[in-house]
Each structure stands twice: as C-alpha cells, then as structure tokens.
Amino acid sequence: EKFEKEAAELGKGSFKYAWVLDKLKAERERGITIDIALWKFETPKYYVTVID
Q1: Could you give the CA distance from residue 28 to residue 5 in angstroms, rounded to a whole number?
Q2: Cβ-contact 14, 4 below 8 angstroms
C-alpha cells in the first residue's frame, strides 16, 4: 500500500510494483533503472531471484 500511494502521488501508479526494488529518488521520478537490485527468497518448492 505504501508503494502504491507514493507512486500515485507522482502520477506513476502503474509503477507501484517496480518501487519495491527501486530505491533511488531518480529511479522513481524518471521511471528507469539506474542501479541494479536483487531480491532473493525461497518457497518450499522453489528458489526465486527477482532482478531489476
């Protein structure tokens, strides 16, 4: 909900999921990737790596 609200305030509501990994202010304002981000997690069946 936090990311959804922040994205909507900047007129970028469709970016709400991208903001989970986009930490730089410039990335959020411009809607582009500047710094690479990784998020790893595991389920009982899979190892998952999300790369941005």
Answers
A1: 13
A2: no
Q: Which of 50, 45, 13, 46 is nearest to 31 (CA)?
A: 13
- Name the token pair of 14: 């469709």
Q: What is the DSSP letter of 16?
A: T
Q: Quote the pLDDT of residue 19.
A: 64
What's CA 7's distance to the chain center, in Å?
A: 10
In this predicted model, what pLDDT tens digit does every residue of 8-38 receive, in sequence order?
887 777 776 776 777 777 877 777 777 777 8
Q: Quick one: 31 exposed, middle or buried, by C-beta within 10 A (0-12, 13-18, 19+)?
A: middle
